[in-house]
Amino acid sequence: MKALPFFPPDVFEEDREKLLSLVYELGTGSEQRFVLGDQTARLEQALRESTGAEHVIACGSGTGALELCVRALEIGPGDEVIVPAFCCQPVASAVAGTGATPVFADVDPHTMVLDPAAVEPLITARTKALLPAHVFSVMADMGRLRELARSHRLALIEDSAVAQGAVLDGRPAGRWGDLGVFSFFQVKSFGTAGEGGVVLTDDAELARACRMLRDHGQDGVHRFLHHRVGLNSRFDEVLAAFQLHRLPGFPDRLERRARIADYYAERFEPLRTRGVAAPPAGRNGRCYYVYSLLAERREELRAWLTERRIGTHVYYPVPLPLQPAFAPWAPEGARWPHAERVSATNLAIPIWPHLTDSDVEYIADSVCAFVA
Ligand SMILES: *Cc1c(COP(=O)(O)O)cnc(C)c1O
């Protein structure tokens, strides 16, 4: 049996000629403009069209996008932002980096996303924003989170880094908050051959702030005039052109991932009562970045799949508030039982679009054989 890596190293192989020619064209072009030029503006426009967002601001990474969001809202020392306890670290570092306090809320034990019921008791007079994230296969409950944000007059930042192309109740991921973000890191569903991300918003003032903040607080007209303390989170022209080239194929790649997930959901349904829980089936509010099982005997399942040459991945084995970096923001004695549980049981299996039907069948057979 051939090896099925968790994520293949040759994702951009079929675009290799295009990427080389873009490097050559832009590298030898008369403009010699390598960041924040026409290509970036065209990509921003294309994403405005595909998402319906009024403003799209391309920046250095998904992490950079979150940092821009928090800073655009003028969140800082003394302010609190509620973030998921089980997530990737930028949700916490983007907040802590401004001097504000990340407040960790527990997640849903099955879908692994921020649980609105865990959020509400943590809201205080200092809370300025909610920062939910979609993880792996399921979008956060944005309807309820939006209601919570509205009723408590909080800003809502939607970390949609992994969920570009997902749709919940007819509204695209990235379009539920005051600000949303996508990441173009290689492994994300609209990944690229390097780093990148965007902020999406309908708010002209927030958009203006993000544009300034991504380029050292300058306004794009007056160089060396700094209106605010900003960041360097500019976007690369070669990658902007490459993403424009890859954008038309994105819906098909996403659909292929969704079909693989449909098949897995059907095959794994009977395993639910036998120690292996798959993400909920269906298409509403689903993303197909990663397909993560929750397995009681995770290490054994992982070894079993490794033996069968199937690559797997354990995400976030330590919840954020239990990480040394975030210990200062973890209140004494606080616990996040669901986050701890999913940290100990999640196991992601391959879902990349170039898997063949027989690859997918082999992976499903192997998981089912473990349970049997
Ligand atoms: C990947 C990711 C980010 C950060 O994106 P980068 O482009 O890697 O900086 C933020 N949030 C979530 C949920 C992610 O998965």
From TrEMBL:
It comes from the Bacteria. GO terms for molecular function: transaminase activity. Keywords: Aminotransferase, Pyridoxal phosphate, Transferase. PANTHER family: TRANSAMINASE, UDP-2-ACETAMIDO-2-DEOXY-3-OXO-D-GLUCURONATE AMINOTRANSFERASE. Belongs to the DegT/DnrJ/EryC1 family. This is DegT/DnrJ/EryC1/StrS family aminotransferase. The lineage of its organism: Bacteria, Bacillati, Actinomycetota, Actinomycetes, Kitasatosporales.
